[in-house]
Amino acid sequence: MKNLLILLIIFTLGNVTYGIQASSKDQCYNCHAELGGEPAELFKNDIHRKIGLSCSNCHGGNSSSDDMEASMDKKKGFIGVPKGNEITDVCIKCHASEEKMAAFGFKIPTNQFELLKTSVHGGLSTNGKDRIVQCINCHGAHGIVKVTNRRSPVYPLNIPKTCSKCHSSSVFMRNYNPGLAIDQYDKYRTSVHGILNAKGDPKPAECASCHGSHGIKSTKDLNSSVYPVNLPSTCAKCHSDKKYMAKYKIPTDQFEKYSQSVHGIALLKKKDLGAPACNSCHGNHAATPPGISSISKVCGTCHALNAELFASSPHKKAFDEKHYPECETCHSNHLIITTTDKLLGTSKDAVCSKCHTQEKLPKGYEAAKDMRNMIDSLKTAQQFASKLIDEAEQKGMEVEDEKFHLRDAHQAVLEARTAVHSFNRKKFDDIVVKKGLSVTTEVIRDARASIDDYYFRRKGLGVALIVTILLAIGLYLFIKRYEKDQENNS
Amino acid sequence: MEENRSSLEQTSRRGFLKYLLTGGLIGFAASIFYPLFSYLKPPKQTEVEVSSVLAGKITDFELDKGKIIKFGSKPVILIRLKDKTFRAFDATCTHLACTVQFRSDLGVIWCACHNGKYDLNGRNISGPPPRPLTELNVIQKGNEIYISKNA
Amino acid sequence: MKNLLQKFYKWVDERVEVNGLVEYMGKKYVPVHRNSIWYYFGGVSLFLFIIQVVTGILLLFYYKGSSDLAFESVKFIMSKVQFGWLVRSIHAWSANLFILSAFIHMFSVYFEKSYRYPREMTWVTGFIMFLLALFFGFSGYLLPWNELSFFATRVGSDIAGAVPVIGPPLKTFIRGGADVTGATLSRLFGFHVALLPGIFTIILGIHLLLIQRQGISEPLHMEKKKEKEKKKMPFFPNFMLRDLLLWLIVLNILAVLAVYFPAELGHKADPFSSAPAGIKPEWYFLFMFQTLKYFPGHVLFIEGEVLGILLFGVAGLLWLLVPFWDRKSARGEHNRFINYLGIFAVMFIIILTILGWVS
C-alpha cells in the first residue's frame, strides 16, 4: 500500500512537471529541449525566452502546436535555419523597430542595422550574396544575454576574444584584407588597457570602445572614430572624464593640452595627417606611454635629426641619470607649443635656465647664452641683408645673385635651431658662424656694392654733363659770333 | 697793327670755338649714342621671367648625382640618375624653404633642415613637407642640357 | 664738310625743288620784345614730346603690356637692361616736364593773346593737344602696374564715371570692363603707344603748319608800330640755334633729374588689397582732384562731385573757345578782363595743387 502511494505521487509529480512543461506555450522548445542539442540548451538562459518569446519568433512556424509537421509548416512561416542575411533580417524584425522594443519595455537603440550597413562588416562577403558579418557572429544565436551580462560575448571583458575570433585568424582575414594586421589581440594584451581587462576590470578600453560596435569603419574612412583626426576625441571619451578615470589616478587633461599644442592644431584644425595623434606616440592596440629613456626615440621617429643629436649630446646621460623624460623635459608631452628662439638662452622664459645658472652647471649656462646670442646675431644679420637687397632692388639695381645667396643664411638659421640639440658649442659654431654669418657678410657686402653702383651713376652723369655744358657754351659763343657777323654784314 | 692783332685774336678764337663745338658735338653724340647702343644690346638675361636656363654640358653631370642650378633667383636641383636620364625639380623645400639636395645613398631628395624626403617624382614621402616639388623639363640639345619651366 | 652738304642739297633740290620752300622759310622772323622769351616754350614742349617718342619707342623694346608681366618687365628694364633706368627715368621726368612746359606755353600764349585772329585754329589745336597730353599722362601712368598707378587709375576713372549721362559708359570704355584689370592695362597701353600718338601727330602737324604759314604772332603793342621799328630775328638760323641751345640745357636738366631722382619701382599692383592711404593723382590732375574734395556732398539736387566736374567742363569749354568770345583782342584791343581771368586761373591752379600736395 505504501509503495503504491509513493508510485502514485511520483507519477503525479512526473505528470505535473510534464504537464507544466507541456502546458508552456513554446512547444518548439519543449520538443527540442527533450531531444537535446546545443540550441535548446543555450536557449534555456536566453533573454528572449525570459521575456516570453519562442523559437518560432525567429524561426517562424507555429509554436503552440506539438505536431512536428504542423509547427514546422512552411506555409505557417517556418524558415528553418536562416542563412546569411536572412539571419539579420530575422533580428531586425524587432530590433529595428522602436515600437516593438517599447512594447517589451526596453529602451535600447534600434539603429544597429543601419550602422552595420555602413560599416566595414556590412560589406559583401566572399560568397557575393551576404554581408560579411551577421548579428549572431558577435552576439551568439541561442544563448543571447544582455550586453551588461558578464556571460555575454560582447561584455567588455569578453569583447577582445570575440573580435579576435576572426581578426586574429590569418586564414580568415586574408579572404578580405591580406594586408590588415592580425596581431591586435596579442598587442592588446600587452597594453595597459589589455592587462587591466584581463584582470577583470570592465572599464578600460576594449575593441568596441575605440572602434565602435555596429558602425565600425575602416581607419582610412574620414568618419571612422579611429581616423587620425577623430582619434584624440575617441581617446578623450574616457581619458578626459574625471569621474570615469578617478580610480586610476592619472591626469585627465591630456586632450585639452594636446588640442592647444602644435601637433593638436596641425592635426585637428589643419587636418594635417603628418601630425601625430595619441596612437603615434602611445601605440593603439599596445597602448602604453613610452618609457623615460625611450622618449627621444619615439619623438625621433619624426624628429629624427633632433633625436640623433640629442642621443649623442651630454644631456642624454644627464637626463637619464636624473630620470628626466628626455624631450618632454624642455618641450612638454601633450602641451607642446610652437618652439621659438625664446626657449633657448638664460632669460626667465628660457628653458635652459631651469637647470643652468651662473653658479649651478655654469658650463651649460655659458653655452646656452652663447648659442642664443649667436642665433640672434645671425637672424639680425639676415634681416639686415634682406633690407639692403630690397633697397637696392627698389633703386633698380640687379640683385638676383644676392637673393639666391641669402637663401643659405635662411637655411643656416633653420639648421642652427636643430643644432641646438647637440648642446655642443663647436657644432653650433660651424653652422651659425661658418655657414650663416659668412653668407650674410658676403650678401651685405654685395648689396652695398649694388647700392654704391647706383650712386656711381651720378659720376657718369657728371662726365656727360661736363661734355654737354661745353657744347652748350660752344653753341652760345657760336650764336653770339654769328649774330655779330650778321650785324656787321647788314 | 691793332686790327691785325684783333683779327688774329679773332682767328684764334674762331679756331678755339671750332674745336670747342666739334669736340662738344662729338662728346655729346657719344654720350647719347653710347647709352643708346648699350640699351639696345640684349642684356645677359634676355627674358623678363626666366623660362629656361642652360645647365651645362652633358659631360658636366656625373651619374647618380644632383647639382643645384641657379634659375633666375631660385635654385633648381638637376639629378642625373644611374640610367643616365635627368630629372629636374624646384629645389626650394615646401616646408620652410630650405634648399634640398640629392642623397644617392637614400635614393631620395632630402632636406637637411628637418629631414624631409621627396621621391624621384618630386612627391613628398616623409617628414614635414606638405607639398611635392614642382618638376621642370630637362631638354638635351646636342651635348648641352637645358632646364625649362613647364610651358 | 660744307662742300659735301652743299652737294647733297643740290642733289635733293634737283629732284624735289626745295629751293622755294627754303627761301620761304628764310623769310620767317620772330618778334623780339620784352616777352619774347616765352616763345621758346612751344619749342621746348615739342622737344620734350620728341624725347617722349624716342624714349617711349626704346621702352617698347622691353616693356610687356600684360598684367602678369608689366611690373616685372619694368623691373627688368630698371635692373637688367643697360641704361634702362636712364631711359625709363627720362621718360617719366620728360612726361612731367612736357606737361609743365605745355602749361607755360598755353598760358603765355593766353596772356599774349596770340590766340586772336587769325590764329584761332592754332589755339584750338593746341588746347586739344594739351588735353591729349593729359590723357597721355593718365594712360602712361598705369603701365608700370604698381600699387600707386593701379589705384590712381581706379580713382581717376571713378571720377570720369561721375560725369552725368556719358560718365558710366566712358568709365567702362576706359577700364575695358567694370573694374581696373589687365584689360584696362591692355587698353590704356594701346591708347598710349598707338592711338594717342597718331592723333597727336596729326594735330601737331596742323599746329606747326599753321605756325609756319602764319608766322609767330606779335604782341598787341607791337602791331601798332611801324615795320622798320619792329625788332626781329630770323627764325633760321638765329631763333633755331637759340632753341637748340635751350633744348640742350633742358636735356641736361632731364639727365640730372633722371639720375638724382630716378623713377620708382614700387610694389606690384594687387587688385585685392586696399588702396594705400592718401592716394593722389599726378600733380597735373591734383588741382581738379583737390577742388572736387571741397565740394559738399550735395548741392541742391546735384551731387557735389558731379557739379564740380560740370563746372570744370564748362571752364574748359570757355577756355577752348576764348578766341571766339574775346572780341576785344580780335579787334586788336587790350583786354584787362582776360588778364585777370588768366591770373585767377594760374593762381587757382597753383594754390590748389599745393593744397592737394600737402594734404
Question: In a nutshell, what does this entry contain?
Answer:
The complex is a heterotrimer of chains A (490), B (151) and C (359). Chain B is built from 1 helix and 10 strands; from the N terminus they run αββββββββββ.
Please describe the structure with a list of short key phrases separated by commas or semicolons:
heterotrimer; B: 151 residues; alpha+beta; 6-stranded antiparallel β-sheet; 4-stranded antiparallel β-sheet; rod-shaped; C: 359 residues; mainly alpha; two-stranded antiparallel ribbon; two-stranded antiparallel sheet; 4 strands
Q: Specify the helix fraction band of chain A.
A: 55-70%
Strand order of the largest sheet of chain C: 1-2
Globular, elongated, flat, extended or rod-shaped: what is the shape of chain A?
A: elongated
Distance between the termini of chain A: 187 Å
Oligomer: heterotrimer
The helix content of chain C, as a percent range, equals over 70%
The major β-sheet of chain C equals:
2 strands, antiparallel
Description of the molecule:
The complex is a heterotrimer of chains A (490), B (151) and C (359). With 490 residues, chain A is mostly helical. Chain A has 27 helices and no strands. The longest helix of chain B has 39 residues. Chain C contains 16 helices and four strands. Chains A and B meet through helix 26 and helix 27 of A and helix 1 of B.
Topology at a glance:
The complex is a heterotrimer of chains A (490), B (151) and C (359).
Chain A lengths: L1 H22 L3 H9 L2 H6 L3 H4 L5 H4 L8 H4 L13 H11 L2 H6 L8 H7 L16 H5 L19 H9 L2 H4 L10 H7 L1 H7 L8 H5 L19 H9 L2 H4 L8 H7 L1 H8 L8 H5 L12 H5 L4 H8 L2 H8 L4 H6 L30 H33 L5 H20 L5 H65 L1
Chain B lengths: L1 H39 L11 E6 L7 E7 L2 E7 L5 E5 L10 E3 L4 E4 L4 E3 L5 E3 L8 E7 L2 E5 L3
Antiparallel strand pairs in B: 1-10, 2-3, 3-4, 4-9, 5-6, 6-7, 7-8, 9-10
Chain C lengths: L1 H15 L2 H8 L2 E3 L8 H21 L9 H10 L4 H29 L7 H23 L4 H15 L5 H9 L6 H33 L5 H4 L8 E3 H26 L22 H12 L3 E2 L2 E2 H17 L1 H4 L1 H4 L5 H23 L1
Antiparallel strand pairs in C: 1-2, 3-4
Helix pairs in contact in C: 3-5, 3-11, 4-5, 5-6, 5-11, 6-7, 6-9, 7-8, 12-13, 12-16
